[in-house]
Every structure is written in C-alpha cells, then in structure tokens.
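Regression test attached.
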Amino acid sequence: MLNIVLFGPPGAGKGTQSEKIIEKYQLTHLSTGDLFRKHLGEGTELGKLARKYMDEGRLVPDEVVIGMVDDKIANTPNTNGFIFDGFPRTVAQAEALDKLMQKNNSGISVMIALEVEEEVLKQRIRERGKTSGRADDQDEEKIATRIGVYLDETLPVAGYYEKQGKLSKVNGVGTIEGIFQDICNVIDRY
Ligand code: AMP
C-alpha cells in the first residue's frame, strides 16, 4: 500500500493536489476537513461538536479526529492506499495514525510537505472564500488563527516524520501542473 501524508498550511493547495494524486495513483482521499464538513452538512452529533472549533479556526480535539479517521479506514477495504489531507495536525494524531496503520499491517510511506509563504496563503484563502462558502475562509481573524494554529501545533508534525526519514518538501508556489509534477517525482520513488 502507498500511504501518503500531504502536509502544509491552510491554503497550501492540499485539496487541489490531492484530487490529481488520487486520480493518477488510484488512492483513497481522506480529508478530515471534508469529513467534518460532511458531518456538519448532515447535522450529525459529530458535526455539531466539530462546528464550534471549526467556526473559530481551532483544532477539533484529537480523540474526536482520530476516532473519525479510524472509522473511515475500517470502512475502506481493498484500497491501494490513502492520501491523508489535513491529518495528522498534531504529534498525538501522528502517533495515533502510526498505530492505526500498524493495526492494518501497513505504514506511512512518505510525507509530502507543500511550502508556501504566509502572505500567499492568506491571498489564496481569501480568493477561495469568494466561492467556497466556507465561513472560515471569509474572516481575516479566523484566517490568522488557522495559520497561527498551524505554526504552533501542526508544524511539529513535520519533525515527527523527518525523524523517521519520511519528509519530502515540495515548493507549493507555481502552476498547479508544475507542482503536481514535483509531487509525482517524489511519489514515484516509493
Ligand atoms: P481544513 O479543511 O483541513 O482546512 O479543516 C477545516 C477545519 O476542520 C480546521 O480549521 C479544524 O477546525 C478542523 N479540522 C480538520 N482536520 C483536523 C484535524 N486533523 N485535527 C483537528 N481539527 C481538524
């Protein structure tokens, strides 16, 4: 199995590149943000719980996120592998993911980290907010909170994979196709 963690700050292009990766490599897309938005739309208990964190741009508690991912993995038999998008976002989530993968006799192959500077991120999120309908894309304070949370809580996750020799950095500024090619060059080594 090919299991990829696609990593980067909000607005780095993880969603856009995930779509292209899953098409080319026939992987299962597991985006925790998308799963939460689905729960929110369906009005489930999980969605109600997640809403207050998402509205403020804060992280949903680890145990809630991990339970949801465990569920999704358990309900996806016979896959070529997963692309994890927006997960793990804390070191505790990364440790839990390793355990979940072991349980399935598998492991993380590589983390691909998209690098984009802060001003470009903010511009992209504002642009996305015009069409995404996402409240967290349309409010300067929420955008700043999400980038701050990324720097404080999520960035250490890159160090976690670096220690395992699994971190590959890709420049996330350029054309969608050019960035995708750089990502494929990394994936094709696995
Ligand atoms: P995203 O679509 O990845 O930008 O996620 C939108 C929001 O969902 C985040 O700002 C968090 O509130 C929540 N969220 C998504 N993934 C996670 C995660 N792995 N851990 C905690 N909260 C998450």
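Expected vs. actual: identical. Residues 10, 32-33, 36, 53-54, 57-60, 65, 86-87, 89, 93, 136, 146 surround adenosine monophosphate (CB under 6 Å).
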